[in-house]
Structure formats: C-alpha cells, structure tokens
Amino acid sequence: MQRLIQRAVKELSEAKKAVALTGAGMSVESGIPAFRGEGGLWERYDPEEYATIEAFKRDPARCWRMLKELGEALLKARPNPGHLALAELEKMGFLSSVITQNIDGLHQEAGNTDVIELHGNGRRLLCLSCGRRFETLGISLEELPPKCRCGGILKPDVVFFGELISESVLYRARREAETCDVMLVIGTSAMVYPAAGLPGLAKSSGSKVIEINPQRTVLTDSISDYLITGSAGQIMPLLVNEIKVLTT
Ligand code: NAD
Ligand code: ZN
Asked: Is any atom of ligand 1 closer than 6 Å to the C-beta of 22?
C-alpha cells in the first residue's frame, strides 16, 4: 500500500491537471450508507423501487418516507478526513475539480470550490409544478409529500433513476475527464452510468486512473492503473501527508 501511495503522490505532483471522481463510498465514513455493500437504509429500501422517477410520481408520499430518512442522514453528516484531504489537495494546487455522484454537499462543505454534482444536491428541494427551488432545511416534513406554495409536489433536487443528468453538467464532467492527466476514482462501484464511463474516457484520453476503494470494482485491472486498497478516510490523508513531505 505504501508503495502505491508513493506512486500516486509522484503522479499527482507531476500532473498538469488532476481531478477526482467520487461515489457513495466517499461519504460512508460520514455516516451515509452506500447503495451496495452493508448499509441499513438500502437493505430496507430497494433503490430501484424507491429512487425511480416513476415510483416517485406514482406514489410521492411512499417515496418520501425513505427520502425523509435519507435526508435526515444527509443533513446530520459532516465531511470526513477523506473529504478534508481532497479539499487540502485543491488548496495545495494538486487538484482541479471534483466530479461527484454524491448528493450530500460534503465536498463543498469541506472546502472544494469546483464540485461538479452529477446527481444534484439533496439539500435542496425542487417543485415539480413551478420549478422553484428551496433549501431542504427550511421545509416542514410533517406532512408528506411536502408541497410548494403553488400547490405542486416538492421532490429532492436530485437525479432519480429514469431521469436525465443536465446536459451542461455532463458536458463539464466529460471535459474534465478528457483533459486531466490523473483521475482519482474514490468510493464508487462504477455501476451507474454515465458517471461510470468517466474513468474510461479519462484513460482513453491518456490519463492515469488511480482507484481508492476497500474493494475491487469493475474498473480494477481493466481501466484503473492500480487500486489503493483502503477507505477514503484512511488513504486520502496518508496521500496528502506524503505530498506535503515531498513538497516542503
Ligand atoms: P455504490 O454504493 O454503488 O458503491 C460504493 C463503493 O464505495 C463500493 O465500491 C464500495 O466498495 C466503496 N466503499 C465503501 N466504503 C468505502 C470507504 N469508506 N471509502 C472508500 N470507498 C468505500 O456507490 P456509487 O458508485 O456512488 O453509486 C451509487 C449511486 O447512489 C450514486 O449514483 C449516488 O448518487 C447515489 N448515492 C449517493 C450517496 C451520497 O450522496 N452520499 C449515498 C448513497 C447513494
Ligand atoms: Zn411550485
């Protein structure tokens, strides 16, 4: 592991542009369970059943019971040492942007300034009728589903299964993947497209792809140059410490 961390540090310090692609695993140590693997929420609620736009439109009150529980976990969560290390990497000039599949807003809270949110942000709600957006914190969830002033149903401002990612967001993410020379792929199983295609795009544009994950994924041994086995909260601070040693 130490050898791979040093290899990653060397590649990061030589890169003209490095970006990170993060998934649910990034926030596991902040107390938000990932989809796959162990996690209370998704063992009780099948995301294919609850997180599709069809299911939401069919029965918003039922979906909101799951969303309320997820929302409570999101609002309580704080950045973990992995998020903080990524923010430090940016501050030191070694990271250009973070492309994230997460909807928890923790990268921004940690201090990253260019965060491309592929799947939206669960700290906001969107009215399905008039399109207005609201801070989730200010909305009462006593009665489900919550309603807008106009009477429309409010939905978390996130991309559900069956919905399209905004063209402009996807365009930026692809540009970042095509123009980086190192991509850190942290805590994603790379099963959800189009995010899962970004490491391949980076690789085919000549970038190194470095995975950080406690487990192997579909990218390991195919797209990734190597996998640093461990959690984001454990590996990322080690990596940042090594960079500091190298550059001070
Ligand atoms: P996933 O649940 O499919 O995969 C999680 C990955 O993280 C796995 O490969 C797992 O081995 C790894 N992992 C587990 N603990 C880790 C840790 N401590 N450090 C690093 N890696 C760890 O997640 P995904 O690939 O992001 O896809 C799931 C979809 O669910 C995404 O589209 C995302 O929008 C959504 N989601 C988001 C959140 C969030 O916002 N925090 C939480 C759950 C799901
Ligand atoms: Zn409205």
From this structure: no
